[in-house]
Batch of 3 targets.
Target 1
Amino acid sequence: MPFGRRHEVGIVVDGTASSDIDQSRIKSISEVIDDAPLLDANTLAVLTFAASYYQHPIGEVIVGTLPKRLREGAPAEDIVQMVRLTEQAQPDDPTLARAPRQKAIVSRLNGADGPLPVAQLKSLHRSVPAALRRLEQRGWLTRYEQRAGGARDFRHDNVAKGPELSDAQASALAAINASSNFQTFVLNGVTGSGKTEVYLRAIEHVLKAGRQALVLVPEIALTPQLVTRFERRFAAPIVALHSGLNQTERASAWRDARAGRAAVVIGTRSAVFTPLHTPGIVVVDEEHDGSFKQQEGFRYHARDVAVYLARRHDIPIVMGSATPTLESLHNVAAGRYKALELPERVGPGTDPHLQLVDLREESIENGLSATLVNAMRRHVDEGAQVMLFLNRRGYAPAWFCSGCGAIARCTDCDANMTYHHRHGALRCHHCGSARKAPETCNECGATHKPVGQGTERIEALLAELFPRARVARMDRDSTRRRGALATTLNRMRKGQIDILVGTQMLTKGHHFPGVAMVGVLNADHGLFSADFRADERLAQTLVQVCGRAGRGDRAGEVLIQTSFPEHPLFAELINGGYAAFAQRAMQTRREASWPPFAHVALLRARSTRENTGLAALSNLRNALGPLPGVTVLGPADAPMRFRAARFHSQLLLQSGDRRQLANALFRLRAQINDLTRNNRVRISIDVDPVDLY
Ligand code: ADP
Ligand code: ZN
């Protein structure tokens, strides 16, 4: 489209027969890129639903979810340049001896016994384009264009054999296979109970019917084993959408999914917007994982969008977890979702033994209690692997002056700077700002010292405590380099690491049979948080990290260090597992009218000026007048008021009725646009927020 003085690529989502705008001012479309719609009706419906549900402009939603190449105007189907020899071509012509470059092309085409894509000739030598031109002039060769593999060509009956299913797996699978229409299943299975095996079988069933499968996972880089397992099982084209793809590969994966050439599409949250030709099933693995929620811009929840997608296509969706969210459990209780239970581990491995270490009774040095160190020593001496979980990266969370007691603060946030030893730097984990760590205090001249523990410090400490053990670390810092994460995962799997210390990354669905013990260095963060989801997240993290122990033939042992061993959450997890926790937490949520017993939306304001955001939210609230069925809480300062050099405040909307909440938000959107046009404040809407800051 002509757009001002430029040309822009646009997407037509609708049409109209009449317009109030003067005919002479309406411009024509310059060029139509695709002859068939880029997005089929179902995909467009999913995008439209998500835009309206999450209160985000449809244009940004569509454009934001398209691969870059297509956004820039590449066609929905790739055009491939083909060449073939003509009747005149003489492969044995003696003159070719003097034109070796032409000869190479002619013999390749002759040998191929048919046309070939130009791209496939490129590897012959560097002057392929010139040689092709010359052959064309001789009349030996013609070129033409063709759509890249239009037809669906995967074989879906080629499946490697899996293990004999357990009874629980078999009945879960039977329930999924029996439902050819829309139905949401919650596959609630303890870690190692064989959930992935159930996905594989259900997908096999779907592939045999000639349909595609969409698999959403939290992070592909963290679970490369999963993709490998799919590739080993199915001799069908599998497309993995991960961050390592370049733009060309991304576009081609998207095209394969859309054209039905890809049998299985595996990807992280944004893969839910990939158009599918004939989907037969959707799988959401580890549905409790926070990464399914996009936290900025278009704030959608991929799991919930996936449910809409399945409904739209009228196909089953399976969401699996050892620690299902209270939302999903509530939907099961309400009869909307169907629970499938896998209560026991399959294959080798037993449920690990869970034990608390009371930090008030133990002398604890640098974050490690004697009980923990002794247990580690026992396992390491026996040749088993140990994992230590600490959700804090860096060397120390505080950089402290030993003279005057001053603590290094971030200038742009209400937060302390974290000390990173390897780079001698202070970094803010909230805004990313960094500076060199000063050796001495600006104020009093005394020396600084690190206080508290991060993973980097624990790693160094372990190297001293266990001089003969191979110690490694897995967190965002240690895996920044390309390939570093894969290397660590590989070494861990091969038993080349004795002790692995890491953050949240450790909790993801890894299967390391050599791990006999897991230590949680500090479970207390989250026990007394103001965020209503904090205890759910903590319980999930603990259960998930514990699930890494005892997956092999050794019995697993889990030690959790805490200063609050009497907290009910621990007793629940130890005595009744996640289900016991969930039952009590559900009660608390019901009493407080928090989700899943109410729907909430959070309006966040941010501004460079103090109080501007608060004032804007107050105005907004007043301008709206009464909102039927909706409770408005605030405005108030955000839990972290000053972050990334902006002041943050928020307004919470709560309602028992989703439609009333949506209506209120729709009215708010118009007001927000008016308000922010001439004000130095940005306001965003977060529907079903997972974090309340
Ligand atoms: P989850 O996804 O619940 O963590 P997996 O499907 O990854 O569990 O299974 C854990 C391990 O047990 C894997 O190594 C898998 O190959 C194996 N496994 C799964 N189902 C069976 C079965 N029925 N019999 C034997 N081994 C199985
Ligand atoms: Zn900061």
Target 2
Amino acid sequence: MADEVYQNYINGQWVDGYDVTININPSDISDIVGLYSKGDSGDCLSAIAVANEAFEGWSQSGLEQRKVILDKIGAELIARSAEIGEVLAREEGKTLAEGIGEVVRSGQFFQYYAAEVLRLMGENTVSVRPGVDVEVHREPLGVVGIVTPWNFPMAVAAWKVAPALAYGNAVVLKPAELVPASAWILAEVISRSGLPDGVFNLVMGSGREVGETLCTSANIQAVTFTGSVEVGRHIAKNAIDNMARVQLEMGSKNALVVLDDADLDTAVQCAVAGAYYGTGQKCTASSRIIVQAGIHDVFVAKMTDAINALVVGNALTPGVHIGAVVDQRQLDQNLKYMEIAKQEGAELVRGGERLNLDTEGYFMSPALFVNTTNQMQINREEVFGPIACVIKVDSYQEALDVSNDSDFGLTSGIITSSLALAGHFKRHSKSGCVMVNLPTAGTDYHVPFGGRKASSYGPREQGQYARDFYTIIKTNYSKPY
Ligand code: NAP
Ligand code: MG
């Protein structure tokens, strides 16, 4: 790979930035994934300008053209998922299987929205005034600024870029500086798809410079962001100043409830997958496991056995269940929360240690705490690492109350064999996605995704609901005679 620099993509051209970012493999820090151009404010402003020009044509483009382009992008991602998934796993630290799965899912988003292009229907009705016809239809917005986090380096970009393009918008994408490779590959695939120049632009660089310029521009019509609450709040305030639309997906503190009548194997499988897969670096991760007293001890024993069987290691090694933490900063944060939990009186069952393996990387063992309360800092703040806490409760009602007692509300889950309690939980859980006998992580692409409270702001992402963000309604009145 040597000195090749992966450049920004602006107006259909590959352009250098003012510097380069070195993309490191967190499973093996001697492995450099590549050198990526680092853009500045000027690059971002150029991208916004050309996107505005390109929007004029793209917003009027035929639906068949859009469908064919999106379908082509999706098909290539799926066909190349093994190769691209390896790059993704190398730059982010999730396992190869998870990396490949993420690329396939990214392709599915493009193929789904390729089909959605043809379903962009309006409504016709009659006016309250006799003889007047009314049409309600949807139009593209303009330029959409897209800012993505490091934990799903391709899927988040895909689930935002695909609907933005499908509904006739132009895009400027700013991926997380830590993981530019997957977004760059997506841009390269898009560059050969037949999409007119300037409709899609990639500007890599820092959030503070490129992200800030993008989200404070008066020349974008919408900004969609996934990342931390702190940055999301800042972006929303800037967007309001420009009267730009804003959609935010942020952190969470998802609860998985395990009731006395739960199937024990299902409970353990869901808890382990939800808490630790993806190294716990998922906004949908189960970090609070709320367990009813009758099943508590046997559940903890069986979950401990399951954790002991998990293999932590280099993301590319076959048989590894838990890859690397994304970087030193996130690892330090995880270890800091381990200390906070212990100081608060949480009882460590196992894990939470820094691991030194064959390759030098950011590894830690999955951690389980018991005897925690929902008031502890470890149960209030998002850690974003492989750390889960058990909270013991006496009843279903207490479990529901504890699960809802959070500043966040992205996903929640319940493991039970009771149809009545599952039904009650679905109605009363204050989260955006509720899972019954399933892990809190793992969602579909054809239905809406999003949360409540500090987890989300603005219209839902994914599925057909995404069009509420990426289109604007027009109401036409006409008197034909
Ligand atoms: P982050 O620090 O908020 O960064 C997210 C993105 O925003 C990055 O591209 C970042 O750039 C950029 N950014 C930073 N400052 C900015 C600014 N002033 N203006 C515009 N953009 C700016 O979050 P992260 O560390 O990447 O991701 C971890 C967090 O994301 C966690 O809290 C997690 O819960 C959340 N998350 C939520 C979801 C969800 O769907 N709800 C999904 C994934 C992650 P840099 O590249 O320079 O950092
Ligand atoms: Mg990296």
Target 3
Amino acid sequence: MSLRIALITGASRGIGAAIARRLAKDGFDVAINDLPTQTPALESLREEIVSQGRRAYIHTTDVAEASEVKNMVDSTLKTLGGLDVMVANAGIGSLLTPLTECSEDAWDKVMRINARGVFLCYKYAAQAMIAQGRGGRLIGASSLAGKQGSGYSSIYCASKFAVRGLTQSAAQELAKHGITVNAYAPGIIDTTIFDAFSPEEGVGADVLNELVKKTPVGRLGKPHEIASLVSYLASQESAFMTGQTISINGGLFFD
Ligand code: NAP
């Protein structure tokens, strides 16, 4: 099996952009996705990757819309000639809120992107990979919050636990097609996602600082450190690993 074409969602910045850069460096041609509002950042990432000799195509698509995800996969098959690795990375944070005050709208919004989005990416990529008949890799974004619940974060935690369940179940079904399914579970990584956890200036930073203090390695993780794990999961060498959600969190939680 030769793995050479990857699609990465939520790739305009943060962990997704780092994964796209790393997989391109590893020799993959890449399809990079984000919402239409992120087109300028995607354009600049595309130019960077193309200048390094790889092919790169942009898909401005909402990962929670089934028809858009299906079109994105179909279009990747046409433009890049196949699909070997799907990295369902796109996700959003949610406000720190007591359960008793969580709105149904907040539940729907976070679950729509973090859980339904990963489900759709796995589903349509798996259909394409099975039809191709050359195996593949499905890789999803879970979280430390998908391993351990925490107060005031019920909705986000539920969405990331969902990714683990989906990953384990899909792994059992798809192994016979040579498709492995794994997820990454980052701790506290230096991206802008934490801006969503608090509307008040500085409060999000306070929460972050507290978490960093509790992290044995004593710092935030870097997006490229998550990309390095994804590089392994996307490689031929990881063929015997499937159904796993791998913690990468500076020792903040052991499982
Ligand atoms: P980020 O910097 O906020 O990047 C996420 C990207 O996904 C953004 O560009 C965002 O665009 C995009 N996106 C949001 N909704 C989308 C949709 N419906 N369709 C397509 N793209 C969409 O986040 P990150 O920190 O890199 O996190 C990447 C993934 O890792 C997420 O799933 C996150 O939950 C997970 N994670 C992150 C951490 C961490 O500490 N950073 C820890 C654990 C897990 P907009 O800005 O336009 O919404």
